[in-house]
UniProtKB/TrEMBL annotation, chains A, B:
PROSITE patterns linked to this entry: POLYPRENYL_SYNTHASE_1
Lineage: Eukaryota, Viridiplantae, Streptophyta, Embryophyta, Tracheophyta
Organism listed in the record: Cinchona calisaya
Gene3D superfamilies reported for this sequence: Farnesyl Diphosphate Synthase (1.10.600.10)
Pfam families tied to this protein: polyprenyl_synt (PF00348)
Protein name: Geranylgeranyl diphosphate synthase
Keywords: Magnesium, Metal-binding, Transferase
Length: 339, 339
């Protein structure tokens, strides 16, 4: 892969990330530029005009990955080249790669407390959906995993930072995250604030220093776009409106759709136990958050998830089926987490 | 100024910033790489071997700027070209430039609360020592203000973020900052956490998107170095050790010197009122922080400031006196804040 190609891949990777990988705080899926809606395509395409190259239902594999079931029809997983795409193996391999990269990036050193705190949350597991989306999007354009890995890790670091700060008593006051006590329950509120800050800064340091085989022009662009997606018109925008809308009786669906796509996690917050979700269940109800289930009900929310997924699949239909397979599978995986 | 030159200037700017501009949390001056001590030169040079091109006492101008006095001997302010360097005018001009740039960068927009919170702390004033050091260091190598401004603003944004988080009840619990109620007293703890996060992310976005006339290679390097200076081996390292050492009876001077240069603000915390310093006075005493005044006393601490300043002046002595004048003056200004 040439430098030019890998560079192009990077931009595309992050454009795709802007589309599907922007889940940060309160475990919600936020639009990255909710106020400007700079998405490269609409997420709300109700009626795809063409049939996707890979059938919509082909990669309904959340059960495979999450529950270790293997009853998905393999014959439906074939791409146009008749190669079976094994999503479970893909997820396992990529998750291991991401875990190792994160482990190496934030290694234990002095001062011990801050690095222990960072590693506690960063290496606690999670589905690693965001870094995998980054890697899969890179792969969509022929880019190798190694090219996208620093960005993929940075995205996971930022996500983890957001969760750590979101769990603080002054925020959502979560006590459980990724199946373990929230960071501040173990290391204290002060360390949780500081470790989050350090993680956010390190995310940008890591992209700037660890990315190889990509032109500096592209790295600068990636940093600029990712930082924007985190800031006061991205992640934080969704979060502050979330904070402000808590208990607001007049916050409506239009308001909600304007700022975020949080349906999947809104549904999970209501329908799953803490043990199943690995985090404090029912936090939205306690805080009286304005969520999709609250406004339109569980079933309508699930229908909307399906519709969004169809839109995503439609937009992926024009790509090389072999290269698109991981991203298609990931999108289905996310959509089916609600079941 | 050529692209190459401005690029070189940038690197030097940030190296200089690493030296003198690393004051972030708890209003202390931290070394940026306290655990690795990667400073380009020693700060603890006791006996300069050569006489600086500009006498040490030439720019003792803190009184001019801080107290509007104009009794500094002008004849001592002449550079080798017999041009009088007017530090007061320099400070006023550059402060205004920085203020305008910050105002433009973080303009008021939706969501209003987060941007109001950010602007409240960012535009509250302060001495703007850090961005001015950045601009002055750029000028030391012939670089123009406009080249350094995005980085200068980013440094001030990061500093402001650190102050906002540092003032949180779970941290230093400060109620006064820059002469106004602390951010969380006005906008709430949740907004103060989020606005700080947004500011940190925006600092990197701003460097990546607003810097003009500098090669992408240098921008990537600047982002990498600045992010490292903020992270778990920089700003946060000092802060977490600060948190951990509170109330520790066995924390000694060696421990303190290893992690930070905080003498100026340690002294100010003890000797100045809240009205004079613009922030909660005596916080170190309340928290039983391990500070220089606590360990070696006020007078010895002031002597150490003088010694550090002489070391800084020594290292600036080899540069073009006209170009070095602002940085020399700024260094003296910082050193004399304790008087």
């Amino acid at each position: 892969m040439s430098l030019v190609n890998s560079s192009a891949t990077w931009v595309q990777t992050h454009s795709i990330y802007n589309f599907t990988g922007s889940k940060y705080t309160s475990s919600r899926l936020y639009l990255l530029h909710p106020l400007k809606n700079k998405l490269p395509f609409s997420l709300f395409l109700p009626n795809p005009m063409t049939k996707p190259a890979i059938p919509f239902s082909t990669f309904s594999i959340s059960a495979i990955v999450a529950k270790e079931q293997t009853n998905t029809p393999q014959e439906q997983s074939k791409t146009e080249n008749d190669e079976v795409f094994n999503f479970k193996a893909y997820m396992t391999e990529k998750c291991n790669s991401v875990q190792k990269a994160l482990d190496d990036a934030v290694f234990l050193r002095e001062p011990l407390k801050i690095h222990k705190s960072m590693r506690y949350s960063l290496l606690a597991g999670g589905k690693r959906v965001r870094p995998l989306l980054c890697i899969a999007a890179c792969g969509l354009f022929g880019g190798q995993e190694s090219v996208a890995m620093p960005s993929a890790c940075a995205i996971e670091m930022i996500h983890t930072m957001a969760l750590m700060h979101d769990d603080l008593p002054c925020m959502d006051n979560g006590y459980l995250r990724r199946g373990k006590p929230a960071n501040h329950k173990v290391y204290g509120e002060d360390a949780a604030v500081l470790a989050g800050d350090a993680m956010l800064a390190f995310a940008f340091e890591y992209i700037a220093t660890a990315t190889k085989g990509v032109s500096s022009e592209i790295i600068v662009r990636v940093i600029g776009e990712l930082a924007k997606s985190v800031g006061s018109e991205g992640l934080i925008a969704g979060q502050i409106i979330d904070v402000c809308s808590e208990g607001m009786p007049d916050a409506g669906l239009e308001h909600l759709e304007f700022i975020r796509i949080s349906i999947v996690d809104d549904i999970i917050d209501v329908t799953k136990s803490s043990q199943e979700s690995g985090k404090t269940a029912g936090n939205d109800l306690v805080a009286d958050n304005t969520t999709y289930p609250k406004l339109i009900g569980i079933e309508k929310s699930k229908e909307l998830v399906e519709k969004l997924n169809r839109g995503a699949q439609y937009h992926l239909a024009g790509f090389d089926p072999d290269k698109a397979a991981p991203l298609i599978a990931l999108t289905n995986y996310i959509a089916h987490l609600v079941n």
